Amino acid sequence: MSTPFETLTTLLAEVADLRHAAELLEWDERVYMPAGGAEVHGEMQATLRRLAHEKFTSDAVGQALDDLKRTQGSGNPDSRESRIVAVTARDYDKATKVPPRYVAEHALAVSAAQHAWGEARAASDFAAFLPHLQRVVELKREYVSFFPPAAHPYDTLLDDYEPGMTTADVQSIFGVLRKRQVALIGALAQRPQVDDSFLRVSYAERDLWDFAVEVITAFGFDWTHGRQDKSAHPFATSFGSEDVRITTRWVEDQPLGLLFGTMHEAGHALYEQGVDRIHHRTQLEGGASLGVHESQSRLWENLVGRSLPFWEHFYPMLQARCRSQLAGVTVEQFYKAINKVERSLIRVEADEATYNLHVMLRLELEIALIEGSLAVKDLPDAWNGRVEEYLGIRPPSDKLGVLQDIHWSAGLFGYFATYALGNLIAAQLWEKFEALEPSRDGQIGRGDFSRLRAWLKSELHQHGRMYQPKELVARITGGPIDPEPYLRYLEGKYTAVYA
């Protein structure tokens, strides 16, 4: 006869299989699906999501959890079994508040919305997307209503992506960041501007694709258990540590976007590939939170990929592929160019100094949509106004403004704040690794990422969801999530770049 823990893990494995099947369909929808396949894909995803939800919220899972709570007693709370039970119980408590009917409706709505977003974005036509986004916002408000009232309705959504974090927490952190980053941007604007004209000429997509593959292979991306494709919006997805997929995109007038997008998504992939195989098909599979996940993508893309030591090693390889574009350009000139600060419209192509401002405006608009102080139909004007207020520029089209991100069409309300939190955590990890490895920059300058990758896997990746974000950060760095290391990094780096 099976023990309660064996019963629970068997059920969780079946739930994981259903979820992974739905995620595989979503990957196909965003990468290879023909335009006419949206409706049938939506129906399949809705069925799989509903079945996964019903199985996870079943009485059988609840009974197994109850049995385990009675029998675990004074066992080690840090054991894998105890953590599986604790994380599953938390997820179960949340999931049982959401009816299966809602799960299916949400899956159908976001599948249709993502398809509509793709077409609306291509046509730069928010009106075509409006009814779909209105429906998604209605569903997110309904989702909030399933839970006990929080200090702010947005807390419920934020907790799905960043457990333990509140709206007040992120608003407080963003207040500190906004003040210092706006001051930094203003100071840099007064200095002689960096020449990046050689990045604005025509590059061959294949040259940059092949170079990006070379870079992430050096990072340690496992091609036996991973692949890269193209999509309208770069993303990473995982069906367990043995099948992790990433995408990037090619934009003619932003050629380096392909490279940095690849490095960013590879950071996510390295996290997923590093999760201990023992957590596969349990609630411990995946990342601790999206903020922690984002710390890995931002660490590899920016702290590694935009550093001078990195380019001292890799620049000759890029220069060899792009001889005509980079002839006569020194590594120092290239380094300054890729770190140029400018007020840009596109979040995923923003520099480090302005990036968080893009996140802040999205967070503020999300909060307004959820609390009802902003109507969905007024979103483009509100978006354009915030961009002008924060960055001093105004989007000329919906495509370059409110339609640039896929997140809202996918129902990912509560997600954007995790990007800024990821920046903070990445800087804390970076400082900690340097304290342990004073030769950090020398290792990177040799193209040797083995010690960094091994440290991240040992301290962070392997644990999956064993620890909540605040606990995990404290275990690694010895302190709470803190904006100061990130601000020190930004101010030190850009003062030198613009010296």
CATH architecture assignment of the largest domain: Orthogonal Bundle
Mean pLDDT figure: 95
Distance between the first and last residues' Cα: 71 Å
| Rg calc | 23 Å
Q: Which topology of the largest domain does CATH recognise?
A: Neurolysin, domain 3
Helix content: 55-70%
* Count of distinct strands: 3
Shape: globular
Oligomer: single chain
Strand order of the largest sheet: 1-3-2
Instruction: Please identify the structural class as seen in this structure.
Output: mainly alpha
The CATH class of the largest domain is identified as Mainly Alpha
Q: Can you summarize the main beta sheet? A: 3 strands, mixed
Strand content: under 5%
SSE series: HHHHHHHHHEEEHHHHHHHHHHHH
Uncertain segments are none
What number of structural domains do the residues give? 2
Number of distinct helices: 21
Itemize the secondary structure elements and their pairings.
Blueprint: H1 4-31, H2 38-56, H3 59-72, H4 80-95, H5 100-123, H6 126-145, H7 153-161, H8 167-189, H9 205-219, E1 226-230, E2 236-238, E3 244-248, H10 256-274, H11 290-304, H12 308-321, H13 323-326, H14 331-338, H15 352-371, H16 379-391, H17 417-436, H18 440-445, H19 450-459, H20 469-477, H21 484-497
Parallel strand pairs: 1-3
Antiparallel strand pairs: 2-3
Helix pairs in contact: 1-2, 1-3, 2-5, 3-4, 5-6, 6-7, 8-15, 8-21, 9-10, 9-12, 10-11, 11-17, 12-14, 15-16, 17-21
Overview in brief:
This protein has 499 residues and is mainly alpha-helical. The protein is built from 21 helices and 3 strands.
Write out key terms for the chains shown.
64% helix, 499 residues, Neurolysin, domain 3, mainly alpha
